[in-house]
Amino acid sequence: MGPTSKASGHVADFLNKRGFGWLMEVQETSDEEYQKPLLEELDVDLTDIYYKIRCVLFPFPFLGFKKKIIRDNPDFWGPLLVVLIFSAFSLYGQLQVISWIITVWIIGSLVIFLLARVLGGEVNYSTCLGIIGYSLLPLAVTATVIPVVRFSRYLTLAVEVLGVIWASYSAGSLLVDEDLSKKRLLLFYPTFLLYIYFLSLYTGA
Fold it and tell me: What processes in GO biological process is this protein linked to (predicted)?
């Protein structure tokens, strides 16, 4: 044992006697902690996100998707991805649109959350954030169809209305639980208005 080891031992004994031995403790870290994939580090489950996307795009009960997974197991990265995709369709050469859509998503989800709580619903903000974000997918699909049917004003209007109803139904069916079953219209209406506003950011109306 060299002089350095002896000195370290004396210091350790000195600190232990006075209750400061924890200062000499070295936290052991395994190599496995440094070898985790980036997605795992960020808590991103692509399979879970893909399933939730299908639940929103196909919200009808007879299809058999367990839509409650979006409500019971909310996440952040999936809704953020959907919001960014919708923002990309809404750019029109203006990058500030992205930040504004994200702001509307965050604040709009907060308003829906507060309204749901006032109405007596058992829902938290992260759940509303996830549901509102994921339910932008129908509007993203609508945004890809509108340029194709733009030759007809009435057809374009029909696609826009269908997209808003689709998004509102997806979000509303997830937000409304048993506690809000008799007050669903009070929650559906502001959700419908929120998606109309989202669509207006795309169309520029």
Answer: endoplasmic reticulum to Golgi vesicle-mediated transport; vesicle fusion with Golgi apparatus
